[in-house]
Design brief:
With about 300 residues, this protein is an all-alpha fold. It has a domain of about 110 residues. It is about 65% helix and about 0% strand. Helix 3 packs antiparallel against helix 10, helix 4 runs antiparallel to helix 5 and helix 6 runs antiparallel to helix 10. It is elongated and about 90 Å long. It is a multi-pass membrane protein.
Length: about 300
């Protein structure tokens, strides 16, 4: 800074003019009291908005992770961690923004430059983190059609019901599938009663081919209630009805097994996952925009404070 000042003076530029034009003076620049009051009020307003947004982010992160069919269970269902990771990002980011907002409030109320500087530095990092979480939320939605169905099919055919007493991963996957199939009243991956990838997919799984099914054609979690389980799973033959009959079943009512869920789980999970991804992405990006505005106001207010306040 002194070097630049000397250089300007060597060019015959008055030092006072140099300070005024290039803000080389280390002391804070004078600001009109009305302008300063306006910056303070605007900064406090945006701090409050960001704090409310941070609480919302924390709540959404907890909701998407711990809901009955939240991101944690979906991650186990398809053996992919991206869904769970996004919830954790929201929880960590929301908690951190709450703490940093409190620091910002203290810095503004106390006119404490050091606290406000800490607030600005951490806020810059968290703004980027929040945008990453928001983008991940939209990526989560974008991946549904392209990857999730294939991943669900791969996990179901290879891991479901296989070595569940020796493999903790396979046991978690199996429990997740059973829970989702019962909760959403679905069976298999995708399609309706006439699809080869809904209830009929179980006959292409390792669970079926390795004889781990105990004579069942579908697991009990694909059945409505506990009555007629043997008929539903195909242990007791039901002439001309699934699961022993290969699809398509079409509209022949006498061929239908009314105790069996016939809709694929992706079909019923898709709207839920789409809504969750949009909620995460939109919330993170909107709060991120307010954080950027608040960051600019914080920098402006920071420059008006004495260095040793």
């Amino acid at each position: 800074m002194r070097l630049t000042r000397t250089f300007l003076q060597s060019l015959s530029i008055d030092s006072t003019m140099a300070y005024e034009l290039y803000d080389l003076n280390d002391s804070p620049k004078a600001v009109s009291p009305n302008v300063l009051r306006g910056i303070r009020i605007a900064l406090l307003s945006f701090l409050a908005i960001v704090l409310i947004g941070a609480i919302s982010i924390l709540g959404i992160g907890l909701w998407t992770l711990e809901a009955e069919y939240g991101n944690q269970q979906v991650s186990e269902l398809i053996n992919a961690q991206i869904y769970k990771a996004d919830s954790y990002l929201m929880i960590i980011g929301g908690s951190a923004i709450i703490a940093i907002s409190v620091v910002g409030f203290l810095g503004v109320f106390k006119d404490y430059r050091c606290l406000l500087g800490l607030h600005i530095g951490l806020l810059s990092f968290l703004s980027i983190m929040l945008f990453v979480a928001g983008v991940l939320g939209y990526v989560l939605v974008g991946e549904l059609e392209d990857k999730v169905k294939d991943k669900m099919e791969d996990v179901l055919t290879k891991n479901y019901g296989v070595d569940i007493y020796q493999s903790a991963r396979n046991r978690i996957i199996t429990e997740a599938w059973d829970t989702v199939q019962q909760g959403f009243e679905c069976c298999g991956v995708k399609g309706d009663q006439d699809s080869l990838d809904s209830w009929y997919i179980y006959q292409r799984t390792a669970w079926y081919s390795q004889g781990l099914n105990n004579g069942s054609y579908v697991p009990e979690s694909c059945c409505k209630g506990t009555e007629n389980i043997l008929q539903c799973t195909g242990i007791i033959p039901s002439p001309g009805s699934p699961p022993r009959v290969k699809p398509p079943i079409k509209d022949n009512s006498y061929l239908k097994n009314y105790t069996l869920f016939t809709t694929g789980c992706f079909n019923v999970l898709h709207p839920y996952l789409h809504r969750t991804g949009i909620t995460i992405g939109t919330t993170a990006i909107v709060v991120g925009v307010f954080m950027i505005v608040e960051l600019v106001l914080s920098i402006c207010f920071y420059r008006t404070l004495p260095e040793k306040s």
